[in-house]
Design a protein that fits this description.
The protein has 546 residues and is mainly alpha-helical. The protein is 75% helix and 1% strand. Strands 1-2 form a two-stranded antiparallel sheet. This is Putative peptidoglycan lipid II flippase.
């Protein structure tokens, strides 16, 4: 099945490539606003923990939060971006994006509205399937109905983000999570006394609307501008050519000239053979959270909350490690589209090495200082010392899978940069998800939340191994043995850094948690660098690779 948009040919300038230095400046803006969004997200979690602690109410809200978590993965971060950025880039390469918008946006909005209404009606069934045995199912249903609005708003926000990035407008898309978290925090502060945890769910709905509003003015301007003059374009797996570039731009364009040549109407196609694998991979990756909450629902109240807080904090190093890969995604795509597999290999190997170094350093810090981190961030109000101890223990288990999480995020980009259908990532993710479910089912009874965290780490690590082994034959010819040897040295360095951080906390037994966590910020990186040099892992060349 395809979406077909007829485009009347009209002469106009092609969409020019960005000037020198533009990508670096855009990356700096994106990184800065991403950090700001992450900080506000952490503040949001602190406010929720302070008001509601880790109990039946917070568990009910977190079950409802499954909806925006899944919607963000599919509609903003992974699937929508991997599909629509190339689509808009290809349309602009031929002169115009208005016909693509007219042909896709109304249908997408209608589909999202239907999906929103369907989940609104099916909220009780969804809660029962996601978390059977939940302590407060009625509250979870109410919160789910409030968060369901994000299906529509996140879908529209993801569409606008893809269009703006293709037009080289990076500021509004980078600000969406700032707007989202501001909406949640503001609603929480205003309504928590009256609505309880429902105020958090209402804040999610408000934040989703702000994600659209923060981008809408820029989207309207670019659609009205003269840069959107249209020419014929047919979107099929192929090449997209810009002046001065051999083929491909902005994440693996898939455009060719219309079959009828100049003067005839062309077509824009979004083939399901390319769409379905991307969407299924994104859904399967987020399904790990669904599996986790399914098994945790039968545990004592608070278990889902402990898992959530542990995961959110532990994954911060993973998010930081993937910033470089996000910025270089267009570079890899352009190299593959132009047939330069050697350039793509070099870039991907550097990206993987950098991602591993960042995430292993973060893992060492998290494992060494988990109680101090959780106490500093969350132990206040309704979140007590028992919640801190449980969350820290779970977080240490989660951290064992951070390397796998980072590798999956880094490896999936070169797979889909090739601009052709590929089902291997879906199969790899399905294998990891199956292992997660098996381990969770076997370990939840004897080990509780710790067993669930272990299942998550085991499943995502298996997916990472499969993706790495399959990359040379299916996308980019990376040197797997050399990469494995280099990463193994950094793993040894991370183990040494973890020991140094643990010793630091033991040397400060009566110190405030914040002071001990700050001290580890010094000792862990220093120990990591020294150990890496001792085992022969390159350290000085890392800034050059970045």
């Amino acid at each position: 099945m395809t979406d077909v948009v007829r485009v009347r040919p009209r002469p106009g300038p092609r969409h020019a490539a960005p000037p020198p230095g533009f990508v670096a400046r855009a990356a700096a803006v994106t990184a800065g606003l991403s950090v700001a969004g992450s900080v506000l997200g952490l503040l949001r979690d602190q406010v929720i923990a302070r008001f509601f602690g880790a109990g039946a109410d917070s568990d009910a809200f977190l079950v409802a939060w499954t909806v925006p978590e899944l919607a963000a993965t599919v509609l903003i971060e992974d699937a929508m971006a991997l599909l629509l950025v190339p689509a808009f880039s290809a349309a602009l390469a031929k002169g115009g994006a208005r016909p693509l918008v007219r042909g896709t946006l109304p249908r997408l909005a209608a589909l999202l509205a239907v999906a929103t209404a369907a989940l609104l009606a099916a909220a009780p069934l969804a809660v029962h399937l996601l978390a059977p045995g939940l302590a407060a199912p009625g509250l979870a249903v109410t919160c789910t109905r409030l968060t369901t609005a994000t299906i529509l708003t996140f879908g529209l926000a993801g569409y606008l983000s893809a269009a703006l990035r293709a037009h080289h407008r990076f500021l509004p898309p980078a600000a969406v999570y700032v707007a989202y978290n501001v909406g949640i925090i503001t609603t929480l502060l205003a309504l928590h006394g009256r609505w309880g945890v429902r105020s958090a769910a209402a804040g999610v709905a408000v934040g989703g609307a702000l994600m659209v509003l923060v981008q809408l003015p820029s989207f309207v301007r670019v659609m009205r501008s003269g840069a959107t003059r249209a020419e014929g374009v047919a979107m099929v797996p192929g090449q997209s050519r810009l002046p001065g570039h051999p083929a491909g731009v902005n994440g693996g364009d898939t455009a060719t000239a219309g079959p009828d040549g100049p003067g005839s109407a062309g077509r824009v196609r979004l083939g399901m053979g390319l769409v379905v694998p991307v969407v299924l991979f994104a859904v399967a990756r987020q399904t790990q959270v669904l599996v986790e909450r399914f098994f945790a629902a039968g545990l004592p109240a608070g278990a889902i909350s402990h898992l959530n807080y542990a995961q959110k904090v532990a994954q911060l190093p993973m998010a930081l490690s993937l910033m470089v890969c996000t910025v270089t995604f267009p570079v890899v795509s352009r190299a593959l589209a132009g047939g330069d597999r050697e350039r793509a290999r070099q870039r991907v190997e550097r990206d993987l090495t950098l991602a591993c170094v960042v995430v292993l350093l973060g893992t060492a810090y998290v494992v060494a200082c988990a109680p101090q981190i959780v106490s500093t961030l969350f132990q206040r109000g309704a979140f007590d010392a028992a919640d801190t101890a449980a969350t820290a223990a779970v977080m240490r288990v989660y951290a064992l899978g951070l390397l796998g999480q980072s590798l999956v995020g880094a490896l999936i980009r070169p797979y889909f940069s090739a601009a052709r259908p590929t089902w291997y990532p879906v199969a790899a993710m399905a294998a990891g998800l199956s292992l997660t479910a098996v381990v969770d089912g076997a370990a939840v009874t004897p080990w509780g939340a710790y067993g669930i965290a272990a299942g998550n780490a085991a499943g995502i690590s298996l997916t990472a191994v499969l993706l790495l082994r399959g990359l040379p034959a299916r996308a980019v010819p990376v040197r797997v043995p050399a990469l494995t040897a280099a990463v193994s040295r950094y793993v040894l360095a991370a183990a040494a850094a973890t020991g140094a951080g643990w010793c630091t906390t033991r040397l400060l037994p009566g110190a405030p948690a914040a002071l001990a966590a700050a001290a580890c910020c010094l000792t862990v990186p220093l120990a990591f660098a020294a150990a890496a040099a001792a085992v022969g892992a390159p350290v000085r060349s890392l800034p050059h690779a970045a």
